[in-house]
Amino acid sequence: MKENRKLLKEVIKGIKRDMTDEEVLNLLADSKVSENPNSEIENYTVGQRAADAIAKFAGSWAFIFTFTGILILWMLTNVLLAVKAFDPYPFILLNLVLSCVAAIQAPLIMMSQNRQEEKDRRRAENDYKVNLKTEIMIEDLYDRVNAIYALQKELVKELRLQNEGANPAARQTQNTMTPHAQSIDPESTTAIEAVVLSAPNNS
Question: pLDDT band at residue 34, thresholds of 50, 70 and 90?
């Protein structure tokens, strides 16, 4: 439990040195370590939400088809206008627009990715805390079950000794049983089967 206490300090901040193991486990059972990583979305600023929306749209097929259509329309318009074209071939203005779009779009996508990485990191920490709590609680339950099982075995032994000491007639009856009946495993047969098998064979 001492090693687990060091790990539990990462999950629960209210652990004190003078607390017993039982108190620590009760505190762990009563505490809620899971968190919703999406709960902080409401705290985003307008700029952050706009960056997320732009990054989401820029990574979709709708953006690809829309931008491709704009490029084709731009080039066809300038080719058909010929001398009156506002951006004649080789479309220098179009190259400038594309460069500006790429220069603005790249930082917005990086901002959105950074927030997504932060959200993934919080989600990973949340999973770690939940798994750690579950592991410690299961380990404690396993130890308790083993302790109960050991205590039960001791009680069964004591009851058998008390029954043998208080009822000597039972031992005498056991001595008069046939060898075949004495070899019967009481745990693998029922009481009725044991009586039938222990009865002497008159034939």
Answer: low
Under the banding of pLDDT at 50, 70 and 90, the label for residue 38 is: low
Alpha helices in the chain (DSSP H): 2-8, 21-30, 46-58, 61-81, 92-166, 168-175, 179-182, 191-198
Distance CA 72, CA 10 (A): 57
User: Token pair 């308790």 is at which residue?
Assistant: 144
Q: What is the DSSP letter of 113?
A: H
- The pTM assigned to this predicted structure is 0.51
Q: Are 197 and 184 in contact (CB under 8 A)?
A: yes
pLDDT > 80? residue 32: no
Q: Which is higher by pLDDT, 82 or 100?
A: 100
Q: Is-contact 12 31, C-beta < 8 A?
A: yes
Q: Roughly what angle, to the nearest 10 degrees, separates helices 61-81 and 46-58?
A: 80
The whole-angstrom distance between residue 123's C-alpha and the CA centroid of its chain comes to 10
What is the token pair recorded at 74?
């731009």
